[in-house]
Amino acid sequence: MMPYQTVNYLGVFFDKVYDFLPVRGKTVIDIGANIGDSCIYFALRGSCNIIGFEPFPKNYELAKKNIEANSLTEKITLQLAGCAGHNGEIIIDPLYKSNVGSCLKEFKRGINVPLLTLRDILNQYNIIRGQAVLKMDCEGCEYDTILSSTVDTLRFFSHIQVEYHHGNRNLKEKLEKSGFLVSVTRPSKEHSVDDKSILYAGYLYAIKRD
């Protein structure tokens, strides 16, 4: 069961970068589903319900194909949408070929893609408090999304894993004040973005305190 595209799946399937999340029997909210590799991984690890959000149309279409090819459409719901600190829309060029370092930015021409807050997602999908975990890898949207969320919204999740790209102090402080035990990895060089710059990233792990 392998995705059509192999851009990031080595880290997901072989390095097991998301093993921190206890997904068996739980709902996974996957922000930055990319080509669907992480959604598929969570399904194979026993998640009963995965809801993935991917704002780039080309990635979204490929993710749908990967999910269908692995016969996981009953477990995985995929939505063409981005996550942010406010709801609304953003214009995305449907022909844009994003990579794992592509940030969510508005184009001059394209299609309107919804922007959802975490609270929007919880309400739309009737998420049960304590029965969901959150994975975020959205190349920068994690800051606006997490920092704008209420304590009550964040505490719907038992575990949160965020790939951060521009430091972690604000995210760590927000989650600790929201009642989470938080640890972080040191940032490391991840990849070149469009062969013009180097991206440094690390992981933040949060476990909700009782």
Keywords, please?
210 residues; eight-stranded mixed beta sheet; globular; 26% helix; alpha/beta; Rossmann fold; 7 helices; 11 strands; disordered N terminus; three-stranded mixed beta sheet; 31% strand
Structural class: alpha/beta
Beginning-to-end CA distance, first to last residue: 37 Å
The helix/strand series, from N terminus to C terminus, equals: HEHEHEEEEHEHHEHEEE
Measured by DSSP, the beta-strand proportion falls in: 25-35%
CATH topology of the domain at 22-164: Rossmann fold
Describe the structure in your own words.
The chain is α/β, with parallel strands linked by helices. It has a domain at 22-164: Rossmann fold (3-Layer(aba) Sandwich), CATH 3.40.50. 26% of the residues lie in helices and 31% in strands. The protein is built from 7 helices and 11 strands. Strands 1, 2, 3, 7, 8, 9, 10 and 11 form an 8-stranded mixed beta sheet that branches. β2, α3 (57-69) and β3 (76-80) form a beta-alpha-beta unit. α5 (141-148) runs parallel beside α7. The longest helix is centred in the N-terminal third of the chain and has 13 residues, at 57-69. It starts with 8 loop residues before the first helix and ends with a strand.
